[in-house]
Design goal:
The chain is mostly beta strands. The chain has one helix spanning 38-42, and strands at residues 3-7, 15-18, 21-24, 30-34, 47-48. The termini are far apart.
Length: 59
C-alpha cells in the first residue's frame, strides 16, 4: 500500500479518521495517509502536499 502526504483545510484538527484508522498530523500539519483516502479527503478540503488548493465552487 502506498501513502500520500496531505494538508487539511484551515482550522483542521491534528487528527483524522479514514476507514476506521486514525492518522495524526506532523508538526507542520501534514498527514501521511493511504492513497485510497485521497478522493475522500479532497471532498473535505484536503490537498496533496505540492498541489495548489482548488478555488471554492459557487453553489
Amino acid at each position: 500500500m502506498s501513502d500520500i502526504k496531505m494538508r487539511g483545510p484551515n482550522g483542521c484538527a491534528d487528527t483524522l479518521s479514514h476507514a476506521g484508522e486514525s492518522y495524526s498530523a506532523d508538526k507542520k500539519g501534514i498527514f501521511t495517509v493511504p492513497v485510497e483516502a485521497y478522493e475522500s479527503l479532497l471532498r473535505h478540503g484536503f490537498v496533496a502536499v505540492g498541489e495548489q488548493p482548488a478555488e471554492p465552487v459557487a453553489p
